[in-house]
Design goal:
Blueprint: H1 2-7, H2 9-39, H3 44-65, H4 72-98, H5 101-104, H6 111-133, H7 138-214, H8 224-241, E1 245-252, H9 255-262, H10 264-281, E2 287-290, E3 295-301, H11 305-321, E4 335-342, H12 349-365, E5 371-373, H13 383-399
Parallel strand pairs: 4-5
Antiparallel strand pairs: 1-3, 1-4, 2-3
Helix pairs in contact: 2-7, 3-4, 3-7, 4-6, 6-7, 9-10, 11-13
């Protein structure tokens, strides 16, 4: 079924459109995942570390300025504490950066500044220890601390600028994310609608194919295949319920002359209008089928021979007096009908059809435009009674 669907132009277009929607949905989903990761990043800890580090910078400078008033041991411990604190802040900031993979690429150029600042803080600690023994080194120590403080301020300001820029990007990402989610929903709904339409189209095509398999293209009546299936089931039902089932074979008289004299398009129109007439005259429970060129079959469940003969003669008379619309015929087509009845579904369809066909041949041989019946052996209605019923119907039609 799917292969048949893909072979058709509409099916191929629907498949291509569905594939494009799927690809676009996949790309959009990947973008949404990346955008969600970027938008959900929390830089609170990093900002806190930077703010604390900025506060430690002037404290270290103040410690160096007040070192001259402190005893030597306390002086070294005081400076050493703030140097360790500054180095700890640097390490904390670096660890925070490593936890934000979308930030690493933006601040990669600052890695050398981190390393250089760590090295200079170590040098400052060593020079502070030497200044304990050499007082002349205290003034250069102050200058070195000022330079390190400036480097720290620059580094921390750079980091804060990057975080602010990323925060702005986060807001933009959130806006784009909402648009992308809306677009993704539209794509998903479109894909769902497309698939539903494809399924409906496929089901419709399947129904059309099934109808073409069971109906006659010219007349719209059922074909022989469907008739055989229905008749087989009807025979089983008749046998179960022990009710009669009648079969009528109808054949247009001298139909070849219509095709020869008026052309095949006119002959096709005659078949269509007669098919419409037969459909109107048949019961809803009956099954009407076209089984040959100008041959029709009417299956009548729960119908006795007498009722079938009456129905057949009514069909014959209606066809004889029917006026064809849009067709100028010098003679009205007539129909010959063969009737048979199976009691309690004891025969197969092929056997039942054979008796109706012989009855139809008899109607043709006796002059056409008449109804004849032939019953299977052992039927409660004898051949004489069936023939008598047939002659009564023919006589009534001729008297009228």
């Amino acid at each position: 079924m799917m292969r048949r669907f893909l072979r058709q132009p509409g099916g191929r277009l629907a498949s291509i459109f569905a594939a494009l929607l799927f690809a676009m949905s996949a790309v959009m989903g990947s973008y949404l995942y990346s955008a969600c990761q970027k938008a959900s990043a929390d830089y609170t800890t990093l900002i806190s570390d930077i703010v604390l580090a900025q506060q430690a910078t002037p404290q270290l400078r103040a410690a160096l300025e007040e070192s001259s008033r402190l005893p030597d041991r306390e002086h070294i411990q005081y400076i050493d504490y703030f140097i360790s604190l500054s180095k700890q802040h640097l390490n904390n900031i670096q660890r925070s950066i490593e936890r934000h993979r979308y930030l690493i690429a933006d601040v990669e150029y600052l890695n050398t500044h981190f390393s250089e600042l760590n090295s200079r803080l170590s040098d400052l600690r060593q020079q502070a220890q030497e200044a304990q023994q050499r007082p002349e080194l205290r003034d250069p120590l102050q200058s070195m601390a000022i330079e390190i403080g400036g480097a720290q301020s620059w580094l921390y300001n750079q980091l804060l600028e990057k975080v602010r820029a990323i925060s702005v990007q986060q807001r933009l990402v959130m806006q784009r994310l909402s648009i992308a989610v809306s677009a993704l929903l539209v794509l998903m709904v479109s894909a769902a609608i497309t698939l539903c339409l494809a399924v409906i189209y496929l089901q419709r095509q399947r129904n059309i194919m099934h109808r073409l398999m069971l109906t006659d293209e010219l007349t719209g009546l059922y074909n022989r295949r469907h008739l055989v299936n229905v008749a087989s089931a009807a025979l089983i039902q008749a046998q179960r319920d022990r009710v009669p089932l009648s079969l009528l074979l109808l054949d247009l008289d001298h139909f070849k002359q219509i095709n020869d004299n008026y052309g095949h398009p006119t002959g096709d129109e005659v078949l269509r209008q007669i098919s419409q007439l037969l459909r109107q005259l048949s019961r809803p429970a009956d099954t009407l089928a076209r089984i040959g060129g100008e041959e029709f079959c009417l299956l009548m469940p729960s119908t006795t021979t007498h009722d079938a003969l009456q129905a057949a003669d009514r069909l014959r008379r209606e066809v004889e007096v029917n006026t064809f619309r849009g067709i100028d015929l010098h003679t009205h087509p007539t129909v010959s009908i063969g009737v048979t009845t199976c009691q309690s579904g004891s025969l197969s369809f092929e056997q039942l059809y054979s008796f109706a066909d012989k009855a139809l041949y008899q109607a043709k041989a006796l002059g056409r435009n008449r109804v004849e019946s032939l019953l299977p052996p052992g039927d409660p209605l004898t051949y004489t009674e069936a023939q008598a019923c047939t002659h009564i119907l023919i006589r009534e039609s001729s008297d009228s």
